[in-house]
Q: What sequence folds into this?
């Protein structure tokens, strides 16, 4: 029998992949009717205080993310604003000298990026001198987009409750796409940060960086980079980190045995797909820019962290917070969402935890107001 040609082997692989995906979808579909019934009794819900909606959405989202992590479906990325063209901006890379180590990489080059303004495009002529936020969405570095309503839920809360004049949500490169491994997302984060400071003319004293889940990881990396290269660009006014992803090592991404596994929707398959796609082969998962958990640093700006009491990242975030507090000049505050799963900031609207998400942002507002009061008192003296 003759050997199969390259084209035949490719078709065979595609056929097996389609069959594999269909089996996964069928298996997941069989579980859904059981979940619809099993979450009705409070005694069978992952947490007794959760509503039927919260328990059901947590379970369904976990099935979806587990499926997504196995299928490894790519999220499309386009510089066409489409239906959101009036809110969409295309940003050119910063000057080459701003991309220093570890951002200078022969394999991954800075590129143009897009981004969505929420709730409206920033207008310096009509600015009321309020906060302006640069926010990085979550998705394990392999999925989601700032164009999606779920990714815009938290930024809209920031505008309403912080309050912020506007939030810019960059469409940074995902690790699941071509040339998307580290440091692609961090290059894009720096591109967006310089755009807000220099192209939009927003003073650093009014600019807050924010991120949820892997976006929190990206915000930490940007802050670390700005501190390591002081003088390149000014530091922001503060950083808000919502359930940041802190440990991308093999152990850190294995959440099935986590004590909060049943009360969270994150899956091992999604996190491991994200970490394996994000980390280049020649970089250790233990390094500071990959897994900041064990690498606290002097932030140089006030740092506010949010964690859900029932999320799988709970212990990691507490450990990171304690490490950051050991630097005497770090001004850090931790807010715990009681009975909250991962990233209530982003999923609060879907999971029926609107009040919890709002209260968290109000806590961040109080933190920023205290910071501002201390600065005004220092200036007066």
A:
């Amino acid at each position: 029998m003759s050997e199969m040609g390259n084209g035949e082997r490719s078709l065979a692989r595609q056929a097996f992949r389609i069959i594999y995906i269909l089996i996964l979808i069928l298996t997941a579909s069989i579980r859904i009717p059981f979940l619809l019934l099993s979450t009705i009794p409070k005694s069978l819900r992952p947490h007794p205080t959760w509503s039927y909606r919260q328990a059901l959405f947590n379970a369904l989202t976990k099935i979806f993310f587990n499926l997504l992590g196995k299928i490894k479906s790519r999220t499309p990325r386009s510089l066409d604003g489409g239906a959101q063209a009036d809110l969409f901006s295309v940003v050119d890379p910063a000057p080459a000298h701003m991309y220093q180590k570890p951002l200078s990489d022969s394999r991954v080059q800075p590129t143009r990026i897009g981004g969505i303004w929420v709730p409206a495009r920033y207008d310096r002529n009509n600015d009321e001198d309020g906060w302006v936020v640069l926010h990085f969405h979550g998705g394990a570095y392999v999925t989601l987009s700032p164009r999606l309503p779920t990714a815009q839920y938290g930024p809209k809360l920031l505008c309403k409750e912080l309050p912020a004049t506007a939030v810019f949500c960059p469409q940074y490169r995902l690790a699941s796409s071509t040339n998307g491994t580290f440091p692609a997302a961090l290059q894009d984060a720096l591109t967006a940060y310089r755009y807000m400071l220099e192209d939009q003319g927003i003073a650093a004293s009014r600019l807050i960086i924010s991120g949820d889940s892997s976006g929190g990881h990206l915000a930490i990396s940007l802050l670390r980079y700005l501190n390591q290269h002081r003088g390149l660009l000014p530091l922001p006014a503060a950083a808000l980190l919502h359930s940041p992803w802190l440990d991308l090592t093999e152990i850190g991404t294995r959440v099935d045995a986590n004590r909060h596994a049943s009360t969270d929707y994150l899956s091992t398959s999604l996190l491991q797909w994200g970490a394996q796609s994000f980390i280049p082969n020649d970089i250790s998962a233990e390094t500071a820019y990959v897994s900041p958990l064990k690498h606290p640093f002097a932030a140089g700006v006030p740092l506010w962290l949010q964690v859900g009491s029932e999320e799988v990242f709970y212990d990691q975030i507490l450990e990171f917070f304690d490490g950051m507090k050991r630097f005497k000049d770090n001004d850090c505050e931790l807010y715990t969402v009681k009975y909250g799963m991962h990233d209530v900031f982003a999923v609060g609207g879907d999971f029926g935890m609107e009040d919890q998400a709002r209260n968290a942002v109000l806590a961040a507002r109080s933190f920023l107001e205290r910071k501002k009061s201390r600065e005004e008192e220092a200036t007066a003296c």
Notes: Residues 335 and 363 are 7 Å apart (CA to CA). Residues 6-38 form the longest helix (33 residues).
